[in-house]
Amino acid sequence: MNRILRHPWITASTAAVSAAVLSALATAAINPDSLGLSGSSPVSITETDLFCAVAGRRYVEAAEDQRAERSEIVSKMKLAGCAYAPAIDHATSAQQQMPTVINPAPGISGTPSVSSAYLYIEQVQGVQPTVEFAKATWTRNIENRTVDLEVAFQDPRIVARISFQPNDDPSLPASYLLAIRFEQPAGAPIVTNVVVPKLKMTEQQRGESLVAVAVQIDPSFFMVALNDTPDAKVTNRRLIAGSPWIDLPVELASGKRSLITVERTPSVIAWFKELTDV
After folding, report:
1. Domains in the chain: boundaries
2. Which residues are bridge partners to 28 per DSSP?
3. Among the listed residues 201, 185, 270, 265, the one whose alpha carbon sits nearest the alpha carbon of residue 239
4. Which of 38, 153, 177, 180 could bond 158 through an S-S bridge, CB–CB 3.0 to 4.6 Å?
5. Is the pTM of this model over 0.90?
6. Are 210 and 198 in contact (CB under 8 A)?
7. How far apart are CA 49 and CA 37, in angstroms?
8. DSSP track, 35-91
9. Which residues on adjacent β-strands are paired with residue 177?
10. Most confident of 32-36, 66-70, 240-244
């Protein structure tokens, strides 16, 4: 697992990571539910939520001089009851100030791929989840044999760095590893837990979980270990090689459940296939 620890933003020791992942895998052997094969999505997404998400993305993608089109989109969002429509101008302004790449690691090859990302946060019963928009930046690191993702949301301020790569540690019964680091204040984390990611063909679908276990290494660092059994490898490779969207369910310090949904472009899917077709 030394390769995955080359990233400067991963500060945990190899021993600490190995111990935590091995413990989670041992628990999964006793309790298959911990592999993420059961349970519902942490955030219930309705047709209205999907309309609001699509409309919001169209607003963001519209040129600034297309005021009539933007005004019409906002009007339709308000009519549909999109909770965040009145603040769409502020959200768009904040998004335009986001860095595209936070801190690229050495060895990045090719042009980064930019895609859409959404942060859904559940609210009290009967109230639509709030949605925050962002741009996600994907890169491929040939030196480290990784596919990396960086995404920053403004409200709440959540900055996530995610790295996927084959497992090179023979002591771990895992085929691939997913390292997830959140930049958040020491002693006051915003994200407190991560659930096994789900992949899906469209933004509207409920995702299908990877066969994996998620474990917390420190308050801001999580690892997801993909199971290495033959059946698990088939399922995981199918999802990784053919799903344009990925959901990362997380829990917030406020007690609310949240969903980070990120688009995987054709280039990104090709990068993943290069790592898994070996």
Report:
1. 3-39+99-276
2. none
3. 201
4. 153
5. no
6. yes
7. 25
8. GTTSS--SSPPPHHHHHHHHHHHHHHHS-TT-HHHHHHHHHHHHHHT-TTGGGHHHH
9. 165, 225
10. 240-244
